[in-house]
Each structure stands twice: as C-alpha cells, then as structure tokens.
What we know:
The protein is an alpha/beta fold. The chain has one domain (4-227): Rossmann fold. It has eight helices and five strands. It has helices at residues 13-24, 42-53, 100-115, 137-150, 152-155, 171-180, 205-217, 222-227, and strands at residues 4-8, 28-35, 58-63, 119-121, 161-163. The chain has a five-stranded parallel beta sheet with strand order 3-2-1-4-5, with helices on both faces. Helix 1 (13-24) links the parallel strand 1 (4-8) and strand 2 (28-35). It is globular.
Amino acid sequence: MASNAVVLLSGGLDSYTAAAVARRDGFDLHALSINYGQRHVRELEAARAVAQALHATRHLELNIDLTPIGGSSLTSNAIAVPKDQAIDPDVIPSTYVPARSTIFLSLALGWAEVLGAADIYIGVNALDYSGYPDCRPEFIHAFERVARLATKAGVEGRPLTIHTPLIDLSKAQIITLGLSLGLDYGLTHSCYDPLPDGRPCGHCDSCQLRAAGFAEVGASDPLMARAG
C-alpha cells in the first residue's frame, strides 16, 4: 500500500514537476494549494488541472489572505511587478512574499500530521530562482528541525521529510525531467502578472526563466503555443 505525501501545488511548472516526482516515487498525492490573494490567482485554475492530471487522491484549497499584510508586488496592486529586468540572485525582488514558504509549509505540516504522512514535496529551487531566501536548502533543513520539535509525530520519533527534488536543478533540467515523466506543461501557469484574458505577460521574472528553460532544452512551450 502506497504511503501518503502532501505536495504543495501552485499550478506552476516547478510544483507540477515536484508533484510528478512524488507520484513517480510511489506516493499517494494529497495536493495542497493556497489562495493567498495573489495577483496571479489564475494559477489556482492550473493547480486544479494539474492535480487532476496527476490523479491526486485529494486536492485541498485553503484561503489564507495575505493582502492585508502586503509587502509584495504579488499581493499589492500598489507595487508593480518588475518587467524585463536582469535577474540578480543577490537582490530580493518585490515579488518576494514575506514568509510565504514558511506559512505554506506550516499548513502542509499540519495536514501531513493529520494524514499520518511523513513526507512533504515542495518545488523550491535554489539555482534558477529570483533570490527568494525561503527557496534555499538552509531554510528547508531548518524547517525540518522545527517540524521535529513542534509536532506530536516528531516528538514521538516519527520525523517528517521535506523533499525538494528540484532544489539543485536549472530550469532547463526541470523541464527535461518533467518531459521525461510525460508532463503536459500546457496545463501550468507561471506568469506573475497575467493579461486580463489570463495569457502570460512574457516579461516578468517567472516568464523569462520559463522561456529561457524551454529555449535551452530546444523544446516549444505548449502554454505559449496555446496562448498564441
């Protein structure tokens, strides 16, 4: 009998790939998506499509509105999403959402404990990323320590493992992995500031990283083909 794993599923390319790795690893997928008031709420529609494509046992959507806190161009219309800028990993951009990964992993941890699951999958990446501090291995390892201290399961000697299968991969390597797993990236949504009809802007950091990854692989992005 397969074990349960909680997978954080945003509807983006990375989370889709990480969830597919969990399925490949033999886990029953319990997908968790968060509506946090993000500008690109369109990604939740993609998350539903991805969860269905991966045959998730359950797809749970939680509403945790972070817009009153603000501080990010993804949760405040008063802050513009950067466009057509060189990505500097030493500069944390305005698209960083304060404590987002900490909040999301805490919710995933709570659900995992209820399910009796000892595994969480998250699609963070420390190579092709926009400088977010909560995408680094140091943060993931620290959160695992917190999970051991803060949960009944951890105290009773059943530690949680946070799987980050994409942590050291380039965007091109992530795409190559996903294609080898038969993923349809046309189901995903990556853009931080989509057009009113939902099409990607093509100019934000996320769009640029995605486009560069597909170009390096020498493959066409099915999302762009459908948008065109």
